[in-house]
Amino acid sequence: MVEWLRQRSRPYLFSNSLAPAIVAASIKVLEMVEEGADLRDRLWANARLFREKMTAAGFTLAGADHAIIPVMLGEAVVAQNFARELQKEGIYVTGFFYPVVPKGQARIPHPDVGGAYP
């Protein structure tokens, strides 16, 4: 029976092991989760502050109750220019525009508000 299942189970036949870097990163993440909620608490505090400040500055934000806060910019050229200027300041973001998102809904999808990086 085991041999028959091995013959018929394509995922078993063609599965690959995980790359060592993926395994190491996964172990590190699990260690961080077990260490406590400090990073998570800082993430949520930073997300709230980011949302408050950006809204006060007149930006339109999408999404709610999560730390990925899309900054809605409308046109593709605006998102591209916005991303380029942020990158000049050392903030790595990518502008998303059509066909990734609907026309007229270009955005910067996920500025890092986590604070896990120096």
UniProtKB/TrEMBL annotation:
<dbReference type="InterPro" id="IPR004839">
    <property type="entry name" value="Aminotransferase_I/II_large"/>
</dbReference>
<dbReference type="GO" id="GO:0008890">
    <property type="term" value="F:glycine C-acetyltransferase activity"/>
</dbReference>
<dbReference type="GO" id="GO:0016874">
    <property type="term" value="F:ligase activity"/>
</dbReference>
<keyword id="KW-0436">Ligase</keyword>
<dbReference type="Pfam" id="PF00155">
    <property type="entry name" value="Aminotran_1_2"/>
</dbReference>
<dbReference type="InterPro" id="IPR015424">
    <property type="entry name" value="PyrdxlP-dep_Trfase"/>
</dbReference>
<keyword id="KW-0012">Acyltransferase</keyword>
<protein>
    <submittedName>
        <fullName>2-amino-3-ketobutyrate coenzyme A ligase</fullName>
        <ecNumber>2.3.1.29</ecNumber>
    </submittedName>
</protein>
<feature type="domain" description="Aminotransferase class I/classII large">
    <location>
        <begin position="2"/>
        <end position="108"/>
    </location>
</feature>
<dbReference type="InterPro" id="IPR015422">
    <property type="entry name" value="PyrdxlP-dep_Trfase_small"/>
</dbReference>
<comment type="similarity">
    <text>Belongs to the class-II pyridoxal-phosphate-dependent aminotransferase family.</text>
</comment>
<dbReference type="InterPro" id="IPR050087">
    <property type="entry name" value="AON_synthase_class-II"/>
</dbReference>
<dbReference type="GO" id="GO:0005829">
    <property type="term" value="C:cytosol"/>
</dbReference>
<keyword id="KW-0808">Transferase</keyword>
<dbReference type="GO" id="GO:0030170">
    <property type="term" value="F:pyridoxal phosphate binding"/>
</dbReference>
